[in-house]
Structure formats: C-alpha cells, structure tokens
Write a structure and sequence with these properties.
- The protein is mainly beta and 215 residues long.
- 6% of the residues lie in helices and 44% in strands.
- Strands 6, 7, 8, 9, 10, 11, 12, 13, 14 and 15 form a ten-stranded antiparallel beta sheet that branches.
C-alpha cells in the first residue's frame, strides 16, 4: 500500500517504541514532478510494519533518481526525503565508455564505481587496466551520470613502481585524464600511448572526482 496513512503508521510505530524521530533509509520506486514527491520502499532498517511503500515529500528542487537510496526523516506522520546516499556506504558499479582515437579495453579491464553523496552530488572512481589496444589521441572516460558544469578531478597512472599523477578535466559527460607538460611552462597533456610515458599492457590508470549532478 502506498499512502499517507502508511507514512503515519510508520511514524506512530516509531513514537510508540519511544524512539526519537530518526533518519531511516529506503529505495525510490517512482517520482512525481507535479507533487514534488517520491514513492519510497523502506529498507529493513526503516521498515516497522513489513515492506510497505510510502509517499514522501522531497526536500530541495531535484527529485532523486529511481532506484537510488534515500534518507527518510520520519516525524509527526510526515515522511520527507532529505538526501540521497548509499544505505550502507557501499558503492554502485557502472560501465564506463572510452573515447579518443584508437582507445579500447581490448585485453585489459575497465571498472567504474560511483555513489550519490546527496541529492545533488556524485563521486566516482574508474580503474582502467590497460590492454594492448592503446590510443593515439587523448583518452576520455564517461561519467556515471551527467554533470552540471565542467570541473576537475584527479588521475594517476601506475607503471611498475613508478606513479604519474595529474589532474582530470571533468566535462558534463566525461573525464579527461591529463598529465604534466613535457617541458617547463608547457601545457598539460592528454593521455595517449606515449603520454605520460610509453604505455604498456598492465599499466593501471585510476581517475576519481566529485561533481554536481544535472537535475
């Protein structure tokens, strides 16, 4: 059952057990732009009467993505979504897409991890173990969800015992790993088969960043 009465029963059960109005968690089933609300299925940590869905008002002007885990503030019969987070701190996975001439996963591996820190902010990490298919133009890696504006992250290439660090340019759709200039005073360089050094299969590129997500 999805109704205000369910929300009230949750709140009453919490008050009856002498608990303070707590933050609980649930998973978004659907949203309504008309009412600014979300239908949320409480997690085992939140459910007091089984697994009934509740309709909750959303704080702020962005509705949480369907399937995301959200914080529920339950008080006086009202249930309000106050933020979007991972329920246990665990990260979700996603499948990044490579861009740039000649780049492919090939015999390597490519993993993406991300989570929503709140209703407006995402953080992510990509781990690319290079294979034998290396690109001749700057590498790009897709973000897990679109961003609002360009910003910066960080990247590191590990080759044996040598580590090459740099700044990742984050567009609204992709991360572009960058490394230091070849000569003093020069511009940062995008990653290619020869930047930041002669690359080889087994080298590991890690990219990480945090950014504001698009509504």
């Amino acid at each position: 059952m999805t109704s205000t009465s369910t929300a009230q029963s949750l709140s009453k059960a919490l008050r009856k057990s002498h608990q303070p109005a707590p933050i609980r968690y649930g998973v978004v089933q659907s949203t309504s732009t008309l009412t600014g609300s979300a239908v949320v299925r409480p997690s085992s940590a939140a459910a007091t009467d089984g697994s009934e869905d509740v309709t909750a008002l959303v704080v702020g002007n962005r509705l949480p993505p369907i399937g995301s885990r959200v914080m529920l503030d339950i008080n006086q019969g009202d249930v309000v979504v106050t933020g979007t987070v991972g329920e246990t701190g665990a990260w979700d996975t996603y499948t990044p897409t490579l861009g740039g001439t000649g780049w492919a996963v090939g015999s390597g591996t490519l993993e993406g991890f991300w989570r929503l820190l709140d209703a407006h902010t995402a953080t992510f990490e990509v781990v690319f173990t290079l294979g034998t298919t290396l690109g001749t133009a700057g590498l790009t890696v897709s973000l897990p969800t679109p961003g609002v504006r360009a910003t910066v992250g960080m990247n590191q290439l590990v080759q044996g015992s040598t580590r090459y660090g740099g700044v990742a340019n984050l567009t609204t759709a992709s991360a572009i790993p960058q490394f230091g200039p070849a000569t003093a005073g020069g511009a940062d360089r995008s990653m290619t088969s020869s930047v930041p050094t002669a690359l080889a299969a087994g080298n590991v590129l890690t990219i990480a960043g945090t950014y504001e997500i698009a509504p």
